[in-house]
Amino acid sequence: MLVQAGLDPDEGRAEDGAALDAAAAGTARLRVSTFGPPTVSLGRYHFTPRGDPAGGVRLARRLTGGRVWAAGPGFVTVTLALPGREALAPGRTPPLRPEQVPNRAVRGVLRGLERLGVPALYPGRDLLTAGGRLLGTVAFEEDARGAVLCETILGVGADVATLARRLDAVDPDGVVTAPAYGAAEATSVGEILGRIPPLAELADVLAGGHAAALGTAVARREREPLAAVGGAAWVAARRPDAALDRRGLAATQLGVVECRFRVADGRLAAIAIGGDVIAPSAGMAALEAALVGCPLERGALARAIERALAAPGCFLLGVRPPDALADAILGGAG
Questions:
Q1: Nearest Cα residue to 81 out of 32, 125, 40, 23
Q2: How many CA atoms lie within 13 A of 26 on its CB side?
Q3: Is 6 strand, coil or helix?
Q4: Looking at residue 184, what DSSP letter applies?
Q5: 152 and 91, same structural domain?
Q6: Which CATH number goes with the domain that contains 94?
Q7: What is the mean pLDDT of residues 322-327?
Q8: Are 46 and 238 in contact (CB under 8 A)?
Q9: What phi and psi, each to the nearest 5 degrees, are found at residue 104?
Q10: Do the Cβ atoms of 186 and 154 come closer than 8 Å?
Q11: Is residue 35 very low, low, confident or very high in pLDDT (cuts 50, 70, 90)?
């Protein structure tokens, strides 16, 4: 376990990439960290907004999918990198399905919070709650090697009601579709306890929670954060492309899925799928590739999506049924 305070968001991404590499080689890593600047944390597949010209709010993009959330002062990020899904449920037959991963991954966080006196619950999908109010969000990435990075963002000294103000700063054009959470809908560890626990205390209970949930020891390590490279390019990698002149949206279990695409001769010529989805990066690339050249007809689109998602290691969480993606495309085709 690493405990890292006041990171630059690009340092956090570098750490997560290194943790995935270590996990693929057989070493699990738990990391409890905070960002220094106030941050809007985009999921892997959100399209990139303009950013805050005043520089007061940072834009970051996670390696994991999921919904947009607040990070930085008042928020703690917990990442768990494992060699594969099987590490979350050793000996289980059949192995965990993708939709079961968040439930298993968040158990260490829940047990840690319980030790602290916070009655947090995982009601399903990608959210953590306490007393019926939003406390955090959970998502994961599964890379082409099968390594898994599970990520939870917790409100500790602040809550996600701050997200709306931050989105106003970084996204005046409304590129990101996200709900405006009200103060009555959100809470924090600090509000529940009547005090804000220091990072070291929170890390200790989370270490104990993960040790109990995974049935393993957790050894703490100290080192300087990894240097960040290419952070601006990573955040901007999904900036809206003017050549993708059609846009379709569909409500999902996690929020909204968005398809930006171009049509030529009645077929999809190019497409980018974004929004509040959880999908393996290689699988998302394969899904987008499978749709290129597909006729703009619901049956053809649904069959292409079904074939792509039937491939080993390919899934799209939150979009149910999967052919709702076809409806989003047709809705934007005009």
A1: 23
A2: 0
A3: strand
A4: G
A5: yes
A6: 3.30.930.10
A7: 89
A8: yes
A9: -75, -40
A10: no
A11: very high
38 lies in some domain: yes
DSSP single-letter state for residue 186: B
Q: Check the CA dihedral 268-274-278-281 and report its sign.
A: positive
The span from the CA of 217 to the CA of 76, in Å, is 22
Q: Tokens in use for 229?
A: 């490279």
Do 31 and 156 fall within a single domain?
yes
Cα separation, 304 vs 310, whole angstroms: 10
Amino acid at 137: T
Q: Can you say how many angstroms the Cα of residue 242 is from the centroid of all Cα atoms in its chain?
A: 26
Whether residues 11 and 88 share a domain: the answer is yes
CB 47 within 8 A of CB 238: yes
Residue 276: give the domain boundaries: 246-333
At 258-281, the pLDDT tens digits run: 999 999 999 999 999 999 999 999
Residue 138 to residues 44, 106, 110, 288: CA-CA distances in angstroms? 13, 7, 12, 24
Burial tier of 174 (Cβ tally within 10 Å: 0-12, 13-18, 19+): exposed
Number of domains in the chain: 2
What is the chain's length? 334
List C-alpha distances in Å: 142 to 70, 95, 187, 205: 23, 14, 29, 26
Average pLDDT of the chain to the nearest whole number: 96
Helices 324-333, 298-309: inter-axial angle, 10-degree rounding: 140
**292 and 269 Cβ atoms separated by less than 8 Å:** yes
Asked whether residue 14 falls in the same domain as residue 78, the answer is yes
